[in-house]
Amino acid sequence: MQTPDRCSPLVVSSRKSHCRAPTALTERFLPLRTMTDGEMFVVEDRAEDSGLLLRDYGRFTRLYCMNGGFHLQILPDGTVQGQRDDGDVHIVLKLKAVDRGVVVIQGTAAERYLAMSDEGRLYASPTVTDECYFLEKLEENHYNTYQPQKYQERNWYVALKKNGKPKLGPRTHIGQKAIFFLPRQLDDSGE
């Protein structure tokens, strides 16, 4: 397989066009190549083929909160909270990507799914509902944030307070330590 150079088209073309040589000051405003009449480009959605964006994460994960040093814990009774004990089975989670940047978070021991209600309360649902889909975003500080997809216009986030209790969605905003989570993958033995 050839390595594409700077002038190679990124998509399939019915005809090849020529790459221009750089010009003076206006180069940054011009495209690398121009399309001519009769060219046809096909852009494919390769997310499913590549396995990079839409996949079931093969390993188990813990979500470590920047605020207070807690892991996100999902209990069988529907409670969501923080737990500092690394050995607790209820902090082992499985994240499943259902779309680009959208994940469902399952507590493996509890067999429940993280959800956020219309009041901004975190809870564990026995089944996947529309409140169980979260927008996962890698922030500049290399931590992830999780926003409920259903309430994304409200700018709420999954968050844990310093005492390990869940923080209400309406009381969260970008920049708070409570909303930043670091995914910590477990090895195959579950440790």
Description:
The protein has one helix at 47-50, and strands spanning 12-13, 41-42, 61-65, 71-74, 80-83, 93-99, 102-107, 112-116, 122-125, 133-138, 144-148, 181-185. It has a domain at 60-185: Trefoil (Acidic Fibroblast Growth Factor, subunit A) (Trefoil), CATH 2.80.10. It is built from one helix and twelve strands; from the N terminus they run ββαββββββββββ. The model is unreliable at 1-55 (pLDDT under 50).
CATH architecture of the domain at 60-185: Trefoil
Output the CATH class name of the domain at 60-185.
Answer: Mainly Beta
Q: What string gives the helices and strands in order?
A: EEHEEEEEEEEEE
Question: Regions with pLDDT < 50 over 5+ consecutive residues?
Answer: 1-55
Total DSSP helices: 1
User: Whole-number average pLDDT?
Assistant: 80
Oligomeric state as shown: single chain
Instruction: Tell me the overall shape.
Output: globular
Distance between the amino and carboxyl termini: 39 Å
| Alpha-carbon Rg, integer | 22 Å
Number of strands: 12
- Helix/strand class: mainly beta
Residue fraction in strands? 25-35%
CATH topology of the domain at 60-185: Trefoil (Acidic Fibroblast Growth Factor, subunit A)
Largest β sheet strand count, sense and barrel closure: 6 strands, antiparallel
Helicity range of the residues? under 10%
Family: Belongs to the heparin-binding growth factors family.
Protein name: Fibroblast growth factor
Pfam family, one: FGF
Organism: Mastacembelus armatus
